Amino acid sequence: MDVPLWLAVAVVSYLGIKLARPSWWLVAVLLLGGYLIAHSFLGPVVGSLINH
């Protein structure tokens, strides 16, 4: 069974929010921070650290 990555991330995110019940501002900060890091000069560095 092939599951698209976006669907897997959406399901894990939904379950994480429902089970851990973090503050909505914390979720927004993490999403915005991840987006900004991915599109900055740190993106390749973080990507290489994750892939190793």
Walk me through this protein's architecture.
With 52 residues, the protein is mostly helical. It has helices spanning 5-20, 24-38, 42-51. The longest helix has 16 residues, at 5-20. The two termini are 26 Å apart. The mean pLDDT is 88.
| Poorly predicted segments | none
The total beta strand count reads 0
Q: Looking at the chains present, what oligomeric state does this protein adopt?
A: single chain
- Largest sheet properties: none
Terminal CA distance reads 26 Å
User: How would you sum up the global shape?
Assistant: flat
- What average pLDDT do the residues reach? 88
Helical fraction equals over 70%
Helix-strand makeup class: mainly alpha
Taking Cα atoms only, what radius of gyration do you get, to the nearest Å?
13 Å
Number of helices: 3
Strand content: under 5%
Short summary:
The chain is mostly helical.
Chain-wise SSE layout:
Layout lengths: L4 H16 L3 H15 L3 H10 L1
Q: Which labels suit this protein?
A:
flat, 3 helices, mainly alpha, 52 residues, single chain
